[in-house]
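Hi all, long-time lurker, first post. I run a small reading group and we've been trying to get comfortable going from sequence to structure in the token notation. Rather than ask abstract questions, I figured I'd post a concrete chain and ask someone more experienced to write out its structure so we can walk through it together at our next meeting. Sequence below, copied exactly:
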Amino acid sequence: MKPAGSGKSNVTLRLTHTPDKKPVTDAVLFQVTADMGPDGMPPMTAPAKALPASKAGLYTVEIEAGMAGNWFLQVAAKVQGESDTVRAALPLQLGK
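-- Answer (accepted) --
Happy to help. Here is the structure in token form:
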């Protein structure tokens, strides 16, 4: 994670195909959300958006957290070769 300026943080996700450990290319990230559920604040959300992939298997999400703390990043992705949507909820520590 690295600062993206003005209260924003960029989080890089590595997507790997579990059976062969190869990077997942051409995934489409959607339903990207961030919330403060880990700190007991479920209605506290932050704008989050997927940015273009930087390298094969590396996807960046920009989060505009209004405050520092423990957050969940929730991501849904369409991956070529997978019939179902791939989903993840990742805990994060974000600063302001």
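A couple of things your group might point at:
Residues 2-94 form a domain with the Immunoglobulin-like fold (CATH 2.60.40.3340).
The chain has a mean pLDDT of 87.
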